[in-house]
Amino acid sequence: MRKPRDIDAELKTLEERTRELKARRVTQLGELVTATGADSLPLEALAGALLATVEQAKDKPEALARWAERGEKFFRGNGKQGTRGKNAGATGDATPGASGHGAPAAAGHSPAS
After folding, report:
1. pTM for the whole structure
2. What's the DSSP call for residue 1?
């Protein structure tokens, strides 16, 4: 008979990995806000813009497609806003991170981790 799997230990490992990934996502979102220059906006204005964006994305999928296209250009270094668009060509740091959603990779984290 095989040794039974330690399900509790596996669950604990998965929970820890989930926490790590959530923390990385929060870090990447913060880096994205900074990279786009949105960190210079008042928090209320940024929150309002994000809420309006979420509402509009639900009602107008064509708007979401246009924003995605603009975001792809931003990450390729063709963007006109923020520091990434200006410096990406020289440093090559405009590639999307491991999240698959175009967020920059968190500092000190490799895509494989």
Report:
1. 0.59
2. -
Provide φ and ψ at 60, rounded to 5°: -135, 90
For tokens 């708007």, the residue is: 63
Tell me the helices (H) and strands (E) count for the chain, helix number first: 4, 0
| Structure letter (DSSP) for residue 79 | -
Q: What is the DSSP string of 57-68?
A: HHH-HHHHHHHH
pLDDT at 89: 39
What's the number of CA atoms in the CB half-sphere (13 Å) around residue 19? 6
- Taking each helix axis from N to C end, the angle separating 82-91 and 7-36, rounded to the nearest 10 degrees, works out to 100
Segment 3-24, tens digit of pLDDT: 888 999 999 999 999 999 999 9
The predicted pLDDT at position 79 comes to: 58
27: Cβ–Cβ under 8 A, 6 or more apart, which residues?
A: 106, 107
